[in-house]
Design a protein that fits this description.
This is Lon protease AAA+ ATPase lid domain-containing protein. InterPro entries: Lon_lid, P-loop_NTPase. With about 100 residues, the protein is mainly α. The protein has a domain at about 1-40 and about 70-95. The chain has 5 helices and no strands. The longest helix has 22 residues, at about 20-40. The radius of gyration is 19 Å and the shape is elongated. The two termini are about 30 Å apart.
Length: about 100
């Protein structure tokens, strides 16, 4: 997913925008997790932790089990988080074929 964001929404001169794009992707993922938590309860072996308890366990080096919800590398998820791609493969190929010196 991150690779697609880099390919379609950033260029070398625009890398400073990458942070904002990745933040938008993180917000979309957080929204998806929140929506799924309301619809589907956690697995049997996963215990919900309050933030201070989680913070203490991480500080003490304890093992914390987390459930991973994958985000697929597909155009639908990107298009729901971003506008149309700013760059396409043709533009990148043209820049490589005709470098400016």
């Amino acid at each position: 997913m991150v690779k697609l964001v880099i390919q379609r929404y950033t260029r070398e001169a625009g890398v400073r925008n990458l942070e904002g794009n990745l933040a938008a992707l993180a917000r979309a993922a957080a929204l998806r997790v929140a929506e799924e938590e309301q619809a589907v309860p956690l697995s049997k072996n996963i215990q919900r932790l309050a933030f201070p308890l989680l913070e203490n366990r991480l500080a003490n080096g304890a093992e914390v089990k987390m459930e991973v919800i994958p985000m697929n590398d597909n155009n639908h998820e990107l298009s729901s988080s971003f506008k149309a791609p700013r760059f396409d493969d043709k533009e990148a190929a043209e820049c490589v074929a005709n470098p400016i010196i």
